[in-house]
Amino acid sequence: MSAVHVAGVSKIFNEGTPKQVDALVDVNLTVEPGEFVSLIGPSGCGKSTLLRLIANLLEPTTGSVAVNGKTAAQSRLDQDYGMAFQQAGLFDWRSVAKNIELPLELKGWDKDKRAARAKEMLELVKLPEFADLMPWQLSGGMQQRIAIARALAAHPPLLLMDEPFGALDEMTREYMQGELLRICAETKTTVVFVTHSIPEAVYLSNRVVVMSPRPGRITEVINVNLGANRGEDTRAADNFFAGITAVREALRGTHADHANAGAIRGVEDR
Amino acid sequence: MSAVHVAGVSKIFNEGTPKQVDALVDVNLTVEPGEFVSLIGPSGCGKSTLLRLIANLLEPTTGSVAVNGKTAAQSRLDQDYGMAFQQAGLFDWRSVAKNIELPLELKGWDKDKRAARAKEMLELVKLPEFADLMPWQLSGGMQQRIAIARALAAHPPLLLMDEPFGALDEMTREYMQGELLRICAETKTTVVFVTHSIPEAVYLSNRVVVMSPRPGRITEVINVNLGANRGEDTRAADNFFAGITAVREALRGTHADHANAGAIRGVEDR
Amino acid sequence: MTAMNRLRNFLTPLAFGVAFLAFWEGAVKFFELKPYFLAPPTKILSQFVENISRIWDAASVSGMNALVGLIAGTIFGVSVSFLLSRYRALGELITPLAVALNAIPIFVLVAVLNNMYSITSEVPRRIMVSLVVYFIVLVNVAKGLTQVKSTHVELMRSYAASDFAILKKVRIPNAVPYLFTALKISAPAAVITSFVSEYFGGSQNGLGSRITSNIANSKNAAAWAYVLGACLLGLVFYAVSVVLENVASRGSGATNTSNK
Amino acid sequence: GGSSESEETAEPTACETTTPVSLQLQWVTQAQFAGYFAAQDQGFYADQCLDVTIVEGGVDIVPQTQLADGAVDFALSWVPKALASREAGANIVNIAQIFQRSGTLQVSFADAGITSSADFAGKKIGNWGFGNEFEIFAALTMNGIDPATGVELVQQQFDMAGLLAGDIDAAEAMTYNEYAMVLEAINPDTGELYTPEDFNVVSYEDEGVGMLQDAIWADADKLASDAAYRETAVKFVAASIQGWAFCRDNTEACRDIVVAQGSTLGASHQLWQMNEVNKLIWPAGLGAGVIDATAWDRTVSLAMDTKNLEGSTVLTAAPTDGAYTNDIVEEALTILDGLGVDYTGSAFTPIEVTLNEGGN
Amino acid sequence: MKPMLRRAAYRTGMFFVSVALVAVLWELYKVVGPEKGGKLFGAPILPRSNDTAMPHVWEMLSRYAEPEQRSPNSNLIWFVVLKGAFYSFRLALVGFILGSTIGVALAALMSRFKTMERGLLPYLVVSQTVPLIALAPLVVSWGGKVQIFGFTWPRWLSASVLGAFLAFFPIAVGTLRGLKSAPAASLELMESYAASWKQTLFKLKFPAAIPFMVPAFKLGASGAVIGVVVAEISTGLKGGIGRLIIEYARQATADPAKVFTAVFGAAGLGLAMAGLVALADVLLMRNRPKETTT
Ligand SMILES: Nc1ncnc2c1ncn2[C@@H]1O[C@H](COP(=O)(O)OP(=O)(O)OP(=O)(O)O)[C@@H](O)[C@H]1O
Ligand SMILES: Nc1ncnc2c1ncn2[C@@H]1O[C@H](COP(=O)(O)OP(=O)(O)OP(=O)(O)O)[C@@H](O)[C@H]1O
Ligand SMILES: [Mg+2]
Ligand SMILES: [Mg+2]
């Protein structure tokens, strides 16, 4: 049973209106348990839309989405996945520990069990001493780690991440990538990961899914297995650079006339 | 006569108070005319501070800064440099052309001359048809190109850029790097460029200046000359990857205990 | 540095205040302004001291009207904004009315309210204050309840959270700073409204009517002693709301939550 | 004076120059001020070579301080209020006491049993504030009732609804205005207008605590130092009294003048008001505008003894000399002699006015 | 632009619907409410439902078509109220402009000199706690007496000044916040151009402040209206809506519906001012990015 199974999915926003957008057309994707899959592609190609479809935050226009062998809707109700976004999206008014406890609270866990799990998650992301601070007292990278802890708190088998490191500086980002790999390996979590960064996609993934816009589709899927024990040296390794080059080539095709792509936002959006 | 000459400069903020920060200590740097120099280093190492010292937006605590053989103050008054930041920082209330005209307006140029120069700059950044749009109607990459046009409008011999492409997605960023190289080559502008991205620094620069924090110093200067005709292929070339690895090595030394670096912002800032 | 700053934050206004009072006193002396026109600060102060117990009584009447109205208006405003956030259609209906009412001088309704209730009771005044507060609170809190980060809502939906859970865990906490901002605006407004509503008749025991009747009787220094009382009352309301706002925003870390 | 001698004979001749004069009223246009509007309308001011601007009042306009500030040349004010301002430094002087009697009433429903001021104790007593409440305090003081505790004082709105709704036991009313308001309202029990029988009326004049009301006040300094101003004052008082005499004899015409001036009160109300105001002025045994020393002294002594809500008296000391003068009005009456105006109105008889609903 | 117009039209429609709803509720209460008022949960907060306290809505509206007085050449009330509201509107506008000028100038001063901000800002807050009713007589007394540049202070100006007194505060505070909102990077940019303080103020700080100033102006506009109406009531200034309110309130003993015509007139006046500011908002912000609301 695959972790994610997207079959013949298309998504059209504002169908039949002048503002119609064909965000996704005939997308097929299967993610196996334990796999790390990245979605990459130019802005507006539908990466986030695809992720939201998997998360059942959107309904596909056509096609079907299955998660862990259930419908997407059922697996959302069952909390089969955790989610993290570009903005850590912590709640300012809750302490770090209470932020991590949020999904558990909603599942109705009792207090002690929640506290224990929060402690465990804080140790996992190596921030045990920050439990009682407020989110705004942490640096961006630490906030993002808390957000990951929150996403994993209920031990979901699947993690959905939408550019989670987009707001971090490159050095922190590389550090976070390492951490994410370690955590996912420890918890054996399947990950679908949206990113704009080629090295990030290559470094993290078993497979990189390259997408193109207008309408959004999958143009290529690149296998880049850098092995289980990635570390700082991997980033200087030849197969890392080879992976980068492969993904870049694949993207180049999708990314033709970049000069004025996505121009004139005002006209497009309203 | 060198374009920038920083000699024995240190900068201490809040000297003598409990909040004292040694942002820069004993920094020496010379940039020759036509050179492209990048500053790279972890957050807080003083990159922006060094750039601001060159721009005379800050006064050094000790040492001296000379630009084009003049004092930094004099060259600011003479508008010897243009400046661009991470956020394009265009004025929402001015059309694209008027944004480019801003520095000329402040210099007291007359209307026709300003309009002519704005037109010229728009052609340089390949956006001639967007003169009358408002900035927010453009995509992020286009906004950043307008910001560069604005920085170059007065034809300054020196361009100071502080993470100008930090907010762009990777694909747009690579495109912008190419554009910047072309423009600087055309206008023979000297550039001091702050970045977080190793590939960016390597791709753009004649020299990469690696800095380390607490206190901020220059730890290494790496020559990475990828030649005048850089293009898409350069990014797949071995000497590009070699440069990246060299800079990463240099940085690794400066970048030890990253896990909880810059933690607990609240305590530090207030 | 900080201690120095704090001192400066305290001394500068003090210096301005002393200079202003000296100027006032000087102007009265120099131009020989008649007492019925403008009393000097020293005389006002001595009147204030002399009448302190009467001023206290009057201030407690007006202050009680303002306080009751403030509390009632806030409770009412918060409850209705909950309804509005729950039933969008209701919001579409009421918000334009609330926005419009914020722009019009509704204090003139006191004349009407006095007839709808007994002129001898404080109820019309309190209702007037409540109305003023209500609309300020409504507009702000409704904004706080609806303008939540989309990431937060999406996150909650990914947890399969109910609408009620979203209200409780996202919308309400998000609206708290807005509520206190509204309080900061409405606290002084409540005091002022309670004075102005004494303008249209009713019991003559509040600061507003004391001020007008003293002015009518050419007892200017006494009138300004009551004005001083009124200022102090307004400042107390304002200060309390600022303190509350700071307490409320300490948890969320946002120092400038004030948002209109 | 000699100069006025020449003018009275040269009645129709055009003035060489006209003197601009402004008069501050206590309230908005109504028949209470009919005499001045009539003097303007009938050209009596013009005859005296005066160009009079009549300035309306408002809730917070204190006419006597407007005068003292030099914003206007003359002001109307009740005597106790003006004396209080005088004590606070406004150097003003009463030059003509137009209303010879107080027109203040305390009106209550007949079944409340308030037939004299002694019955006020423990009741909700309405008043208007703004210095119009001294007679109430005087009556309370006279009866030994503490204004702060012995009664509940309530400030009335601009209307009499508080009385009719039963919120107030006895409401302050001027004979010429608010008393008419209740008589113009529909009695919900009968469906007809209320009648005087429905009410008890306590008149402060009759209670012996009436204080002097509408008087013309002038700037004392200017009067002493500025001969031209003094002359203007004489002419102004003369023409004003002439206006009041006109209104005495032409009640309905004066009503029309006031209505034409833009009063929004109804016509029957204005006629009632005109008639009642006439009763306060006429007959004037000493001559209209002349200040009766007895009434003055009574007003002053009441003002000095009467304690208000705050326990302070209207006046802390007897007014200094020069608070009033009969010199001006006497000169003015001389002018009126020359014009053949009857300024005593000994033959005055009021008319009968029927009030309509809403005063219309 | 088009959808914005549609949105505005929709809101206006909703406004009228809700006003109609309030009218219906009013009449409904008259049917079920106690004649002499009553208590709810022990508090005497139920209003009297009789015709004196709560006239019928149609009574109020029909007044507009009636002459103001019974005299034959009297104007109809709608005309009188409209005229009064327009008169007050002009005063409020003067007050608003005056208040804006002072408020903006103060804000500029405070943004320039930190000492000014430290010293002045607390007193601006204090100034707003001074009851208008205490200031009214003082300001009124300037009428006809104070001379400025050879022209005599007209009485109506006092009303405008009181309007300005309530208007300037939110404008000063909002503008100050706006002036401080200019992004640090933009300020640095101006500094890198060696721009003078004045250039920075007019080319950067003020334009950047506009989004903060517009809501402040909205508050200021309603403050100006309140100030002017209070001042008109206080000084009895003839011609304005405040004066009509007292005059009609005086007639409420016999004609309780009449005063509502003036009350609605005051509401219209407030809305007109708000509309004016909204119009300015649209004009000033037309080239700005539109807010996205969730
Ligand atoms: N709720 C929506 N309503 C209408 N159009 C939408 C909606 N969400 C997304 N779109 C459109 O669908 C397309 C794909 O959007 P999506 O957010 O999935 O892109 P993306 O690949 O995540 O882009 P980015 O890299 O900028 O985040 C875009 O053209 C976008 O404008
Ligand atoms: N105006 C200032 N006052 C006090 N400290 C400052 C100031 N500006 C910078 N600093 C401190 O100086 C140090 C260097 O700051 P700087 O902004 O130059 O770092 P940076 O290398 O540009 O970092 P980043 O990559 O995050 O932009 C930091 O510790 C910072 O907190
Ligand atoms: Mg996206
Ligand atoms: Mg920096």
Unreliable spans of chain E: none
The pLDDT mean of chain A sits at 83
Question: What is the CATH T-level topology of the domain at 83-285 in chain E?
Answer: MetI-like fold
Number of helices of chain E: 10
Bulk shape of chain A: globular
Provide a descriptive summary of the structure in words.
The complex is a heteropentamer, with two copies of chain A (270 residues), one copy of chain C (260 residues), one copy of chain D (360 residues) and one copy of chain E (294 residues). Chain A has helices spanning 47-54, 72-77, 96-106, 111-124, 140-152, 170-187, 198-204, 238-254, 265-269, and strands at residues 4-13, 21-31, 36-40, 62-67, 70-71, 81-84, 158-162, 190-195, 207-212, 217-223. Chain A is of the alpha/beta class and 270 residues long. In chain A, the strands form two sheets. A six-stranded mixed β-sheet of chain A has the order 6-7-8-3-9-10, with helices on both faces. Chain A has a four-stranded antiparallel β-sheet with strand order 2-1-4-5. Chain A has two domains: 1-80 and 157-165 and 182-260, P-loop containing nucleotide triphosphate hydrolases (Rossmann fold, 3-Layer(aba) Sandwich); 85-155, no CATH class. Chain A starts with a strand and ends with a helix. Chain C has a single domain (58-245), classed as MetI-like (MetI-like fold), CATH 1.10.3720. Chain C has helices spanning 2-30, 41-50, 52-86, 88-103, 109-116, 123-146, 150-158, 163-196, 207-216, 220-252, and one strand at 202-203. Chain C has 260 residues and is mainly alpha-helical. Chain C is built from ten helices and one strand; from the N terminus they run ααααααααβαα. Chain C is globular. Chain D has helices spanning 2-9, 34-41, 44-47, 63-68, 79-87, 134-142, 161-164, 178-183, 204-207, 220-225, 227-249, 251-260, 267-281, 293-305, 327-339, and strands at residues 19-24, 50-55, 74-77, 92-96, 104-109, 124-127, 152-155, 170-174, 199-203, 215-219. In chain D, α6 links the parallel β6 and β7. Chain D is an alpha/beta fold. Chain D is globular and about 60 Å long. Mean pLDDT of chain D is 85; it is low at 1-11. Chain D starts with a helix and ends in a 21-residue tail after the last helix. In chain D, α2 (34-41) crosses α11 and α2 packs across α12. Chain E is mainly α and 294 residues long. Chain E has a domain at 83-285: Orthogonal Bundle (MetI-like fold). Chain E has helices at residues 2-32, 57-63, 77-112, 114-127, 132-140, 155-179, 184-192, 197-235, 241-250, 258-284; strands at 38-40, 43-46, 147-148, 151-152. In chain E, α3 (77-112) crosses α9 (241-250) and α5 (132-140) packs across α6. Chain E is globular. The model of chain E has no long low-confidence stretch (mean pLDDT 84). Classes of the chains: A alpha/beta (270), C mainly alpha (260), D alpha/beta (360), E mainly alpha (294). Chains in contact: A-B, A-C, B-C, B-E, C-D, C-E, D-E. At the C-E interface, α1, α4, α5, α6 and α8 of C face α1, β2, α4, α5 and α8 of E. Bound molecules: adenosine-5'-triphosphate (2 copies) and magnesium ion (2 copies). One magnesium ion is lined by residues 47-48, 162 of chain B.
